[in-house]
Each structure stands twice: as structure tokens, then as C-alpha cells.
Amino acid sequence: MKLIKFFKHIPNILAFSRVLMAILMFMFFVNRDLFPNIHTSWLDFFTALIFTLASVTDFFDGYIARSFDAVSKLGEILDPLADKMLVLAAFIGLIVIHRASPWAIFIILVREFFITGLRIQMATEGKKVAASMAGKVKTVSQMGAIGFLTMNWYGGEFLLWLAVVLTVYSGLDYIKEYLKS
After folding, report:
1. Cβ atoms within 10 Å of 176's Cβ, excluding its own
2. Quick one: which H or E segment has residue 126?
């Protein structure tokens, strides 16, 4: 019984850890001068590793919350905010190190803030907003673009613009659902 009670807190702990990892990842992006003896490729690797670990916690906090009936009001707020902080830290960091188009990032972030506001509005109206398949594909595309750009791999810029298209599409999908409800 105590184990089940403990598991009910894990999703929020994982979401909060994602906030902390977003801060750490941002530090690796913007404070590269703190590590003068570490080659840039290693900083890229550590940054990508932090991002990957944080992204994995996003999967597990949702899985555990659903599996152990541990969905909470705090989790419903903290989880999407932690996700947004992680994406925000990554994209702003990529702009700082000149690996991402500021216009692409601007479009993505405007959509993220707008849809977050729309979801909050829907929640105040008592409407449930489950993540759509388009939203999940958008998230995967953004994570892929962030990974490729962080590692400075070929194709990162293409993946970023693909993520922009999918991000706008999923945003329009959310607006359509809101107008129907």
C-alpha cells in the first residue's frame, strides 16, 4: 500500500526533475565559457544527453500517472509547463549558439504559448484537452530537431523547419477542436 502511495508522487517528481534538467541544459548551451578545457563537441553531447534524459522522464511520468491512477491537479499543470520549459531552454539555447533559425523558433514558441493559453482557457471551462496525435507527432519532430541541432548533425535545419510545419498544423488542430467544443 505504501509503495502505491509512493508511486503516485513519482510523476510530479519526474516533471519537477525535467524543470531542473531544462535549467542545467540551458546552462550548457549559454555558458560554454565556464568549460574552457572541454571541447565543444563534448558540451554538445552532454547537452543532448540532458535533453534526452529529460525527454524520457516526460514519457515515464505520463505512463506512471496513468498506470497507477496518479493523475493530479498539480501534475496536470506541472507536466505541460515542464515540457514547455524544456523546449524553450533548448530552442533559445540553440539560437544563442547560432544553430537554429530565430524565425523558426519564434513560430514554434508563439504556437506553444498560444496553445498553452487555449488549453488553460478550456480547463477553466471544464473541458478536457487530451493531446492529439498531431500534437504528439509535433512533439517528436521538435525533439528530433533539437537533438540533431544540438549535436550539430546534418539535416538538423531541415528537421527544424519540418517541426515548424507540424507545430503550426497541430496548433490549428487544437483551435479546430476548441471551436467544436
Report:
1. 11
2. none
